[in-house]
Hints:
The chain is α+β, with helices and mostly antiparallel strands. The chain is 31% helix and 15% strand.
Amino acid sequence: xxxxxxxxxxxxxxxxxxxxxxxxxxxxxxxxxxxxxxxxxxxxxxxxxxxxxxxxxxxxxxxxxxxxxxxxxxxxxxxxxxxxxxxxxxxxxxxxxxxxxxxxxxxxxxxxxxxxxxxxxxxxxxxxxxxxxxxxxxxxxxxxxxxxxxxxxxxxxxxxxxxxxxxxxxxxxxxxxxxxxxxxxxxxxxxxxxxxxxxxxxxxxxxxxxxxxxxxxxxxxxxxxxxxxxxxxxxxxxxxxxxxxxxxxxxxxxxxxxxxxxxxxxxxxxxxxxxxxxxxxxxxxxxxxxxxxxxxxxxxxxxxxxxxxxxxxxxxxxxxxxxxxxxxxxxxxxxxxxxxxxxxxxxxxxxxxxxxxxxxxxxxxxxxxxxxxxxxxxxxxxxxxxxxxxxxxxxxxxxxxxxxxxxxxxxxxxxxxxxxxxxxxxxxxxxxxxxxxxxxxxxxxxxxxxxxxxxxxxxxxxxxxxxxxxxxxxxxxxxxxxxxxxxxxxxxxxxxxxxxxxxxxxxxxxxxxxxxxxxxxxxxxxxxxxxxxxxxxxxxxxxxxxxxxxxxxxxxxxxxxxxxxxxxxxxxx
Length: 573
């Protein structure tokens, strides 16, 4: 995970000139892939040790969800800057037998003592972001383990207590520090200087760990032993829950999390949000995830001829302009649907998409204002600044069942506070720090007791029109997740690239007036062509680098991809 020195602006206040939409192109005549040859499965994740844990479970006859439990348990140990037992997750699951797609929501919840102004200082202004992240107020009830337990009860084949062996062994015996973990521990992120992180990552000689140093975490080993024996109750009740609550209540700026908040946490399960895209069906979780935004981005691009412009200036221009519209609407309307009306159907309404796509003209204009989708209520501009401390993995088992899961502790090492061998999340800083605008108009993503903060996580699964599995993909990256996922989907589905090549495409994130990009990875003629159309690419940190991982079907079998910007691999058993 790269360290962020600034965040992409997500609030836009300018008017976009309306122009005629490009002609809608006909979809390809046939889906991307035929049904695969018989396969033993595949795991694509951000660390080889986690991939091997998942493969071991598959070799032992476990299901995709069984393997996902093992992958997450190891990632929380070897990639603690990104996800862990103290964080949350979204999962999209494909059942090969029923050809159905289910969404699991393990997003953290705010304590019942949370208030809309909890991230405002005594002067009524939003807290400094680093102060908020390191505070006790930043931590919500962790949901990833409870979500995995729910999914494993539905779709597991092996006993739950057999899924943590790799995590326990690595924590007890030690593992070589991955480069990204060591880099994050030595970074300028405020959490890296927090007392718990300093204690964990400092060697006896007083220096910080380096890549390859052996790291042991006996407390983590004991925690996963307890989770293996007791399930999520080991985290949400008893001594670990008591330690979490006690740590959150310590200075600076104690939080309101209670044992009752921990005990009452429940993950959610629902039918996935699915929409057609050309000859495919793309499925994601619903709100408060980033799924609706990714589907809207695809809906806008379907009304262009981007498929005829693989990796050229026009193709990237269309991508950038659809991205700006997607971000403008998402930032205004998406929140927790249990607390606010979220116009998901309106955002994905074909007539609304037709009208929004007309704003994509021949050259770029000012940043777009949010639209007014059917069913939308007036909402204030959102000032949420969403950092990235997240990871994504995909598992396919021998029966063809698929897990696409994005999992997070929010920022680097979450809040920087550690309990029982793992870091606590700072997920509540995903809420808008200001609950209203100056006129009192409410923000959709304002803080509320028991509320889930808005997320950009959007684990995606693609089917053909017969509901056979085609591909799965997802990424970390804070708000840039939406652009990263959209890029990979366009690369695979429209530009017909292998998954690995689609993931490796340069990144371009366009949430408003800026076009943050990996400029050096674009061909010079593409950069020049974009500039001629008013899209001036800018290098810089802007957003966390992508960590895309995916698996696709080919006539020869499964083919995976791992983001070259990270340390992951995609392997078969």
